[in-house]
Design goal:
Beta-Lactamase, Heat Shock Protein 90, 12 strands, about 60% helix, about 15% strand, kinase
Length: about 450
């Protein structure tokens, strides 16, 4: 916008400067010429008017008046200042002229003479080119041509017009100076006006550009946030779609664990109770005691497995704990259950998280340690938690034999469940495995978390 304004405004300003400059210069030239002519005309009229007879009734000047005029224009200050003088009658007759050959001749009245006979003072700065101005052209110098109406004293009627040419060499210099000053003043005013407007427009253009850049950046940020929201929405939809399948899978696994463990032991105990060894009166007491001991042992094993399954299903009280306490409880529970050591390293700063985030982190550590113990024998298990720029990272490592990540079934309960649980709250899940061990990692933004030392 600034460039367009500078281009268009520059053209308009130059055109305006030329028009205004020409107008002002013309007005100043006219004013200077008119004022100079009025001064000279008043001076000439003050000297000549008393010498003239009643021109309303006189058609030819007498010899005395002519000689007096000759002496007036032939010597003194007026003779040096006026190079030529004529006295016109209304019919175009020259009553008197400093050039004797012009006296008595009649010419057609030009436009200036006609205006002068209407009562107006006419002044022009020029080199004379009229038919009757042969002598003036021969002088070859700049002249101020003046037509001054001569009025009858008692009636104010124009009875004659005096035409004279004043030497204007100094006037020409003054006129050029006035022209230069007028052009300089107009150019300065237009330049200041244009520069002031340009400064305002340039600053406005910069402000608009800055606002446009800020809006573009804001739109880009909003577009990025919108895309993130869409991705989160898609992930939430995927998590919602798999929730039912995962719940059913959890129920199937729970049913399988109950069927293969406690149910088998209870069935075994029931069969032993129904055996003839216990119901036959002839069975020795020692045999009966052995059978009862075996039944009690199987029932005890069934109860222990049921308790183990319940411990895996029920979370400990983590609502009032911070991040460090949640991870520590998950690790300690795993160590107590398996007897396998786990190295734990936590960040220097803990934070208070939402209940859903605490549950997700607890289940992540619990499931990752269980998988490492089940498939890697619990070798070299480590849990590391870091906090960087409000981003919580939890890693669970082991030094087991590893596995091929590409061959993991997407419907597998452990990894699929962890991934869906973490992504459903806006986190990120990753898995790396090689022959030297496996690393399971989750990251989660700690938005709105309260940090403590």
């Amino acid at each position: 916008m600034a460039r367009r304004f500078l281009l268009a405004g520059g053209v308009v300003s130059i055109a305006a400067a030329l028009v205004v400059g020409a107008l002002v210069t013309t007005l100043i030239e006219a004013a200077v010429t008119r004022n100079s002519a009025a001064t000279t005309a008043m001076y000439v009229d003050g000297i000549i008017a008393p010498l003239l007879p009643d021109l309303q009734t006189t058609e030819v000047l007498d010899d005395i008046t002519s000689r007096t005029l000759d002496e007036t224009f032939g010597q003194g200050a007026l003779g040096d200042r006026v190079i030529s003088f004529r006295l016109w009658r209304a019919d175009g007759t020259v009553l008197y002229a400093t050039d004797p050959s012009m006296i008595g001749r009649r010419f057609g009245l030009n436009e200036e003479l006609q205006r002068a006979f209407s009562g107006k003072l006419i002044a022009e700065f020029e080199r004379p080119d009229e038919e009757e101005s042969i002598a003036e052209r021969a002088a070859g110098i700049p002249l101020l041509k003046i037509y001054n109406p001569i009025l009858q004293p008692w009636s104010g009627e124009v009875v004659a017009v005096s035409e004279f040419y004043e030497v204007a060499e100094g006037f020409e210099e003054s006129l050029w100076e006035a022209r230069l000053l007028s052009w300089a003043a107009v150019a300065a005013v237009v330049a200041v006006f244009f520069l002031s407007l340009s400064a305002i427009v340039v600053r406005g253009s910069r402000t608009i550009d800055d606002q446009k850049a800020a809006l573009t950046e804001r739109v880009a940020e909003l577009s990025n946030l919108l895309e993130q929201n869409r991705e989160l929405h898609r992930r939430a939809q995927r998590a919602s779609q798999r929730a039912t399948a995962l719940n059913e899978s959890y129920l199937r696994r729970l049913g399988a664990d109950l069927h293969d463990g406690p149910a088998q032991l209870v069935a075994y105990a029931a069969l032993r109770i129904d055996s003839k060894t216990l119901v036959t009166p002839d069975t020795p007491d020692a045999v009966r005691e052995v059978e009862l001991s075996a039944i009690k042992a199987r029932l005890h094993e069934a109860m222990e497995e049921i308790r183990a399954i319940c411990r895996g299903l029920i979370l400990p009280d983590i609502e009032n704990g911070d991040l460090h306490e949640v991870i520590t409880r998950a690790v300690n529970a795993h160590v107590q259950r398996t007897g396998s050591p786990v190295a734990l390293r936590l960040s220097d700063v803990a934070c208070e998280l939402s209940p859903s985030a605490k549950i997700t982190i607890y289940r992540f550590v619990q499931e990752a340690l269980n998988n490492g113990f089940r498939h890697g024998g619990g070798a070299g298990q480590k849990v590391r938690q870091t906090l960087d720029d409000n981003e919580i990272t939890v890693e669970v490592e082991d030094e087991g034999p590893g596995f091929d990540v590409e061959k993991v079934k997407p419907e597998g309960l452990g990894i699929a469940g962890l991934r869906e649980r973490i992504e459903s709250i806006g986190g990120h899940f990753s898995l790396k495995s090689s022959t030297s061990g496996t690393t399971v990692c989750m990251t989660l933004r700690a938005e709105g978390a309260e940090f403590t030392q």
